[in-house]
Design brief:
Helices cover 42% and strands 18% of the residues. By secondary structure, it is an alpha/beta fold. The chain has one domain: 3-Layer(aba) Sandwich (Rossmann fold), CATH 3.40.50.2300. It has a five-stranded parallel sheet with strand order 2-1-3-4-5, sandwiched between helices. Strand 4 (79-84), helix 4 (89-97) and strand 5 form a beta-alpha-beta unit. Helix 1 (15-27) crosses helix 5 (110-123) and helix 2 runs parallel beside helix 3 (64-74).
């Protein structure tokens, strides 16, 4: 049986994006945590052990793709959705090669976020062991 309440980490240097995603995640019945850069994301990946991370690409200190690589190397069970307003085929390819579960373009639609959360819950029976094709 799928676990219905996720621990979701939201990582973006823009407060407005973090707060919007926080509302969507909580209204969808999940627990949300927020970080404002890749360094905080790496630290929180170890401390809170989220099921899912929404991570921006361009951030200060450590960018999202670098943080993705570090998180997936140490915690491959954590799934990451990469978000960016500056998408390119190279960015998508790098995100995929580093283990991103999904890639979405900003600005995104709130309904798209709700659907991704639903898909994640529906397809992951055991978050620590299951693998899903993702949305890429």
């Amino acid at each position: 049986m799928a676990r219905e309440k996720l621990k979701v980490l939201i990582v973006d240097d823009q407060a407005g994006v973090r707060f919007l995603l926080d509302i969507v995640v909580r209204e969808s019945g999940h627990k949300s945590y927020m970080a404002q850069n890749g360094m905080e994301a790496i630290e929180m990946a170890f401390s809170i052990k989220p099921d899912l991370i929404f991570m921006d690409v361009r951030m200060p200190l450590i960018g999202g793709l670098e943080a993705l690589g570090k998180i997936k190397a140490a915690k491959p069970e954590i799934q990451v959705i990469i978000m960016t307003a500056y998408g390119s085929e190279q960015t998508v390819s790098e995100a995929k090669s580093k283990g991103a579960w999904c890639y979405i373009a900003k600005p995104f639609d709130v309904e798209e976020i709700k659907e991704l959360l639903k898909k994640f819950v529906d397809e992951f029976d055991d978050f620590a062991e299951s693998k899903v094709a993702g949305c890429m």
